[in-house]
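Fold it.
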Amino acid sequence: MEIIRDNKNNSQRSVLVKRDTKETKISLKLNIDGSGKSSLDTGIGFFNHMLDGFSRHGFFDLDVSVKGDLDVDCHHTIEDTGIVLGTAIKEALGDKAGIRRYGSMILPMDEALVLCAVDLSGRPYLQYHAEFTVPRVGDMDTEMAKEFFYAVSYAAGMNLHIKVLDGTNNHHIMEAMFKAFAKALDEATQEDPRIKGVLSTKGSL
């Protein structure tokens, strides 16, 4: 995996991550302090749509290019993108000095309601409660939502809770999950002038 930090736009929290395997070739650029712009090409239309919502609603600039073994299925493409995104989040935040660390959101989308809570603790954990009634939404397997968030949480060292509180439309449920995650992560990564160093009694995250 190759990690390149980018300070050209006066942001200390911008990073490019590249990862090549026999299954996927991924280039992902993330700017935590962005405006919600994205350029997305994963080969999976619905996954592009989810990442676009993540970028827009979290105010993250996100460029993603993935060439994966979609002739097999969508698993490697989505899971590996999660690994690279989680790595980018971790690297862009550095030592996490001055950030709020915690973020949460209960996000409605029509009949769907999703809770997401984030702790950028450095300790990876995913607590996921969601059920879908169809195997696929568009060209994305619904079971891959959990695999994506698991990969992000473990690569980023993030405690991530996602719970679907209500909903019947599978598109709405999954979209609400990605947007709720974006809003919670945006809150957790915000810098707070009251915080000196890191927000931890241990002195490090």
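Residues 13 and 46 are 28 Å apart (CA to CA).
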